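Homework help board

Subject: predicted structure for assignment chain

Our instructor gave us this sequence and asked us to write out the predicted structure in token form, then describe one feature. I got the tokens but I'm not sure how to describe them. Can anyone check?
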Amino acid sequence: MAPNKDHRANALRAANGRSRRRAVSFGWVWEWAKVLPPAVLLFLVLRTFVVEAYKIPSGSMERTLLVGDFLLVNKWLYGAEVPYTRRRLPAVRAPQLGDILVFEWPGDPTKNFVKRLVGRPGDTLSMQGGSLLRNGVPVREQYVSHTEPDVDPMTDEFRWQRGYLTNTAAAAEPGMPAIYRPSRDNWGPIVVPPNHLFVLGDNRDNSLDSRYWGFVPDSLLRGTPWIVYYSFTPDSTARAPWLTRIRWGRLGALVR
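My token output:
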């Protein structure tokens, strides 16, 4: 009888051990199941209404922002949009001249652009020899760079400005001679209409901005860049440049 008792005891211990192991093995799954949904919900709320990541794809904002910069964009400052409602939360403040804006491009709202705000509704803007004038006063822009100062292209893309000229209304009338011939560095004066903004890239000679495609409806604003959380120098000849070409000095830099 003793061997049978020992056998039953061993079997019970083995069964209890398996039960404990299963409890230990699957206990962490339950803990994660309790924590994960609130964490995902919090992430979605923060991304929708507070802050969102953004990557700089072009050199239109150099020297301020560089290709390869990864930004955190403050969405609550101007009032984040509530998804699927076309409504916005109350803004902390309105966009101010000199702010860097992230917005949906009017030509294709699926694309995000980043430029600097230089004109608000009612402002009269012009450019002479590459220098910006606002309401007839030259604007000091220490952040601007000129990479091609010896050329001043003139294209049909600038013709949209004729409808917003001041003191030259005849130039916008159908059938009138094309007396207004704007170029990249010489245009205006034009007036910014209500509920719209005029934006320019800091790299004035290499920026597709309001000079080319017009004003930005304020309803397309996404936010303003806050901080550079990561940055690397893109280099097609380097192996894994996102690891070997990190711009350490830009990590954590505030965007101004």
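Reply (TA_rk): Your tokens look well-formed. For the description, you could write something like this. The first helix runs from residue 2 to 49. That's the kind of observation they're looking for.
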